[in-house]
Amino acid sequence: MSLSLFSSDPESLPLHVIETAALSGWLSDQAEDVGTWVRANGFRGKLGEALLVPGAGGRPAMALAGFGSAETRARGRFALAAAAARLPEGSYRIVSGLPEAARSNEALGWLLAGYRFDHYAEGDRKRRQLVAPDGVNAARLQTIAAGECLARDLINTPASDMGPAELEAATRNLAARHGAHVSVVTGDHLLDHDLPLIHAVGRAAAGAPRLIDMSWGESGPALTLVGKGVCFDTGGLNLKPGSSMGLMKKDMGGAANVLGLAHMIMALGLPLRLRVLIPAVENSVSGSSMRPGDILTSRKGLTVEVNNTDAEGRLVLADALALAAEDAPDLLVSMATLTGAARVALGPDIAPFFTDDDTAAQMLADAGENVADPVWRLPFHMPYEAEIEPGIADLDNAPSGGFAGAITAALFLRRFAGSGRYVHWDIYGWQPKPAPARPKGGVGQGIRAMFDALPGLLGL
C-alpha cells in the first residue's frame, strides 16, 4: 500500500481552489501575466482541471485547482482529488477558494487519492502531498484514510495470498499494533465449539475454515463487528460461471471493511469495548462439499435447508452472529458482500443497510451525508419472512423466485442476531471504474459513515 500523509513542508506551493463562476473575479485580483498564462492554457475552473502558474525565473509560483460548480460537484465526490491527480509531484497548501464546510471531506479525498496497490507491480509513484487545511483534524483524517486503505489492500490481494490463514495473519497484525487480543478456532475444532455452519461451508477447501475473534478495550459500551470472510467463492457445487467468479477475491470484503473500521476505532482510542468476529473460509469444490438439499443445524439450533451452495455467506455469518448475540452487545453490526440484488437495487456506489431502529437509521443516513460515504436504508420487510421458511427446515438459505434477494438475506441474518440493536450492511466492496480518490479495485463502503455515527449510536 502507498498512501500519502499530510505534508509539513514549509515550502509547499500555494494552491488556489477556483469555481468556474469565480474565475473571472479571481483573475481580476491577479497580475496581468498570471491572467495571460491562465487564459492561454485554457483553464476555466472546471471540475478536475489543474494548472501550475510560473513565477520569476520560470519556477512554479502557485497552482490552480478547478472546483466546478455546485451542480457538477453533486454528480460525484471528492472534487479536489480530481484536480490533485493532474498536479505534478510536490507539496501543496490551500490558500483560497475551498469552503470551510468542505475542507474535511476534500482533504480526506486528497489523502485517498494517494492510494496505490503496488504489491505486485509499480504504479504511479508520484506523491502529491497536501498541508492539512485550517480547521481539520489531521490526525483523525489520516487514521480514517489508513483504515480505508487497509480495507482496500485486503480486498485487492488475490486469494492465492489472502486465504483464511492470511486473513487471520492480517487480523493478528492489526491486533498487535493496537494491543488487542486474538483467538482463533480452526478446522474440525469448529464443530467442537458449536460453529457447524462455518465448518460446513469451508470444509471442502485446502485452507482450513476458521472463526477469528479479536477483542479490544476494557470499558465503555460493547460494539461487536461481524465481517464475512469468504476469501474466494467458487459457488461450491452450484458452481459460478467464469464471468461471475472473476471478482470473487473480493468476497471477503465484509471482513476487510470491519478490520478497516476496527483500525479507526482503536487508533483513535474510542472509549468502548470492541469485538470483531470473522468467519474466514473458502467456498470450494471437493468430495466433502456441502450439497444442495442438505439440511444443516446452526449454532443457534435453527435448521437450514441448503438450496444453493452459492448462498454461503449468510451461513457463515449466521453462526458468527449467534455467537456475538450471546454476549448481548450494545450494538451488533454485520458487513458482507452478500447479494447481487443489493447491487441491482442501488448500484456499486451506495451501501445499503438494514436496521429496525429508526433513530440509528437516521444517524447513519446523516453520517453518510456528512462524510461523503453514500448509504441507503432498506427494510426488514416482515411479510417476506415466509420466503425464507421452506417447511422442511426452519430456514431456507436461497428462496426461489428471485425477488427481494437483499431483503430475504437480511431477514435470514436477523434470525441469528438476537434482540438487541442490530445493523446489517450489504456492501459491494469494489470500485468498478476509476473515480476521484477511488481507483478501480477494492474499496471501503459504509465504514466512514459507521465510524462517524458511533458516538451517537453508543452515547460516547
TrEMBL record:
GO MF terms held by the record: manganese ion binding; metalloaminopeptidase activity
Domain (Cytosol aminopeptidase) ranges: 308-315
Domain of life of the source: Bacteria
InterPro entries found in the cross-reference section: Leucine_aapep/pepB (IPR011356), Macro_dom-like (IPR043472), Peptidase_M17_C (IPR000819), Peptidase_M17_N_1 (IPR048816)
Keyword field contains Hydrolase: yes
Keyword Transport: no
Assigned keywords, A-Z: Aminopeptidase, Hydrolase, Manganese, Protease
One GO CC term on file: cytoplasm
Any Gene Ontology biological process: proteolysis
Family designation: Belongs to the peptidase M17 family.
Protein name: Leucyl aminopeptidase
UniProt lineage: Bacteria, Pseudomonadati, Pseudomonadota, Alphaproteobacteria, Rhodobacterales
